[in-house]
Structures are given as C-alpha cells and as structure tokens.
Predict the 3D structure of the following.
Amino acid sequence: MIDVTGEEFEWHIRYPGSDGTPGTPDDILTRRHLYLPVGANIRLELHSKDYVYSLALPHLELNEIAVPDLTFIMEFKTEREGTYELLGDQMCGYTHPKLMGEMVVLSKEAFAAWSEKAKAES
C-alpha cells in the first residue's frame, strides 16, 4: 500500500519502508512523482488534508478523488516499464503544477536502487 495525500496543492507520497509496514519511521517520503516496480500489484490509498483533489492515470484509464477525512482506493498492476502521466486537480478549476507529475515504472533492480536513494533523502 502506498499512501498518496493531497496537501497544499501538492501530492505527498508515503511508501512503506523495509519493514513493510506503512506509517512507521522507516517509510520513504516523496512528492509529486510516483515510482513503482514493474510487474507489481499496486494499491494506492488516496487522502486529502485540506481540499478535494482528483488523481488520474490516463494510460490506465483510472481516475479517483481524495477528500478530507475519507480514504479512496486505486488498484492496478504495473505491466511494463516507462514514464506515464500522473494528473492531479484541485477542484477550484486552477491547474496547480505540483499536482502534475509522472508515474515512473522501473525494473525491480532500478526500483530497489531508487528506494535506497529515496530512503537516504527522506
């Protein structure tokens, strides 16, 4: 499970760390871009701390909302490596650049290397 939270017009992304348990001190924290291993079943839990947001992965034809005090789920499988659009919107009608990002699907080895680097930066 990966937690994706909208706050202050930006996506905050929390990956479980090496213990595999979300919400613990070893979690990996990033913003805006979603990094995933290829061939994985992915479960995103969408939250908001302030406004109503939408998150879209157009290449998968997926779109979901994030609402304060509620949890919404987006599930999919990463089929192939590549960089894809991650589109976000805050329901005010203005496009906030920090809600636009990329979903980057990496080989398992490249994802492990990314995870180690991101953990050091968290």
User: Anything to note?
Assistant: The radius of gyration is 14 Å. The mean pLDDT is 92. The helical segments are 108-121.
